[in-house]
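Q: Could you fold this chain for me?
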Amino acid sequence: MDLSESKRIIDLSVFEDNLYLQGYETVAGIDEAGRGALAGPIVAAAVILPRKNYFIEKINDSKKLKEEFRNELYDKIINSCISYGIGKIGSRLIDSIKLGNANKEVFKKALYNLKKKPEIVITDALSIDSEIPVLPIINGDELCVSVCAASIIAKVFRDRIMVKFDEIYPGYGFKNNKGYGTAEHIKSIKKLGFCPIHRKSFHINEFFQGSFF
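A: Sure. Below is the predicted structure, expressed as structure tokens.
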């Protein structure tokens, strides 16, 4: 690892290091994938990284990484973290409780599924009700190493779900679009209609406003 990459990762760890200096021993980062998709679940991951000398080269916000790098980093994070938890909420429940509530609930599920309880949680801007203190950081997935790690875990885990859905519901291109509103995906919906994993109330009411009909 060259000096510039080492410095970048040190800079990514500033928020976590400051929390350690305040006396916190275990810090979890949490982030989600799939919030803006038209189909499939929202998946959240909570990750507790080792406190000292944690350097994984190229770790970053999942959106800034190529798929091959995300998959490599996923394995490295899983194998080196103190604990990680996954939360998932499917399209029917998203439609039922609405997107904002689903986002908060999936964060809580991810925290609950951590084997080790953190003393504080850093989120990507989202505040949630929790007995554990929560520190929302705007652009946390770009600024905090633990949130970067969580974003990678959530993204890769969800992408693998969508690849499986592509086999179950062919014709929508889920393997490629991962449920997001690409032109090809929208064209497929117009041709085939909705399948069971589409978020009907979400995209009709908030995105397309009936433009399919």
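A (continued): Residues 63 and 151 are 8 Å apart (CA to CA).
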